[in-house]
Amino acid sequence: MQRLGYTADGYLWQPEYRDTVKLLQEKLVLFLRLNEKLRNNIADKHPFVNNTAEAIEFNLMQFSEAYREKFILPDMEGYCLRFIELINPVLIGFVKEIGFDAQGFSLRFRYGSQVIEKSKTILIVAQNKGSEDR
Known about the structure:
- By secondary structure, this protein is α+β, with helices and mostly antiparallel strands.
- The chain has five helices and seven strands, in the order E-E-H-H-H-E-E-H-H-E-E-E.
- The protein has a five-stranded mixed sheet. It has a two-stranded antiparallel sheet with strand order 1-2.
- The two termini are 28 Å apart.
């Protein structure tokens, strides 16, 4: 928790991202379990996604061989970008739930020795939701 300031009622506290890492891990695993196409092609959801304070890592080798050949191998970078868009609502909901106005995420996609790193920024502006990719 980080102290934001002091009021007559006491200190104002806001969670730091590292305090919420486990919550996001649970939300991502739940999303995978509820998505039929992913659920049917990932043997074990926990080794597939590992969220830490530094990055969200996805082990693409956890997908079935048929899935990897059809969707990942032809264009791994394109697949990673599409996957980020797929989990975008989870990230937006998470940022709103923890009460942040914005949060940057580092995402790592591992396929054997190959690693693709991307970043995603979620911005919550008034009633609107937004995001930015890099």
